[in-house]
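Today's session is about reading a structure prediction critically. Students often jump straight to the picture, but the first step is always the sequence itself: look for stretches that repeat, for charged clusters, for runs of hydrophobic residues. Only then move on to the predicted structure, which in these notes is written as discrete structure tokens rather than atom positions. Here is the chain we will use throughout the hour.
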Amino acid sequence: MKYDYVIVGLGNTGLSCAKHLARLNFTFAITDSRDAPPGLDEFTSLFPDAPLALGQFDQAMMLSAKELVVSQGVSYQHPTLINCQQAGIPLIGDLELFVRYVKAPIIAITGSNGKSTVTTLVGEMLVAAGKSVKVGGNLGIPALDLISSIEPDYYVLEVSNFQLEMTTDLHAEVACVLNISPDHLDRYATFNDYILTKQRVYFGCKKAVINRDDKLTALPSHNKAEVVSFGSDTPAENQFGLIKADDGQTYLTCGKEKLLDVNQLKIKGRHNWLNALSALAIASQASVPLAPLLDVLKTFAGLSHRCQWVREINGVDWYNDSKGTNIGATIAAIAGLGSAIQGKIILLAGGLGKGADFTELQPVVRQFVRHVILFGQDAALISQGLGDDVSKIFARDFNEAINQAAQLSVSGDTVLLSPACASWDMFKNFEHRGQVFCELVRNLSTEVM
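Below is the predicted structure for this chain, in token form.
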């Protein structure tokens, strides 16, 4: 049998694609290498008659499709996908489908770190400025589930590298690469492959927002989109940056115009100053006034598991940065909090390293961290990367790691969970890891501190 589409990989993305294709009366089938993928019960309930092949990718089924819709969890380098490509069958992702069926302008945000925070901020800023928006993509609601009969003024999408692999042209009104640091090196042959995939978000965009502090986010020379930038230096006219004034205070600025004292931000740390600047740079491209955008920054308290303050015990603050699943995120969290506190950081790190080079943590750890408490599968690899002149303690389990942090910290210190690793060796996902951390910290007795 021939199909309009075969969906490769179920989960949230595959299920979203199936619902979308069914609404448009396309014929489709689905295949997954797992025996019981997430979303299976809902899929079989909604589409009891849909062809379904589990346990391995069904190449015969895939070769019968006009196009393959590949979920982001499936590598484009999978041998079965390569065979289908060689047979002339196009590979697309959910974002490619999305672009085909929406007319409202898209704001697309990617980056190694901070993209969920910035995507959420931009959505809230545009709502405060009177725009109707739908926010989703890799964050929360899958992009295709945002489509309805009433289109918003803007779609604000968080976009992952894996989604960009299968996207030819987003045609975004505004596209932004927040930052680039090594991640997912277990999926890409080289770091340059990862960089080039990130930069695909710029394909066809009208306006590009880049990070002056990170040259890897620069617009490719052949792309002629209008460029707006943000960074930690004093910005040029109509660009966004930081100025340290004569009174010693640091301000978010547009050109030389002071917009907001950073002390008025609820999200703390230098990395969050850059998140705020990037959100301002992106949202301002929708031709809205800055005042409501700044009001949002004064009240936005951040997202769970992203440098989330949990508790203070005996003068020690505890932060949950479980979303710090790569080295870049952990460096940003350490530097951001370390520069804002009087004491030192007790860092909890560990999990699945995804082929990362942990030597990159050395400078910031030496500057801001008193002890590193290591847990999880790749604890030894992290220890090796940190070198011999860093105080390291190995914990047998997560609970022991937290108890050791409680015993080692003193008033003025900050205990930071920022693992620099994926969570799947010990937890369902980074959210689960963060939830367990918060629960254990809230149950700590002040007597052990």
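Discussion point for the tutorial: The domain at 3-92 is CATH 3.40.50.720 (Rossmann fold).
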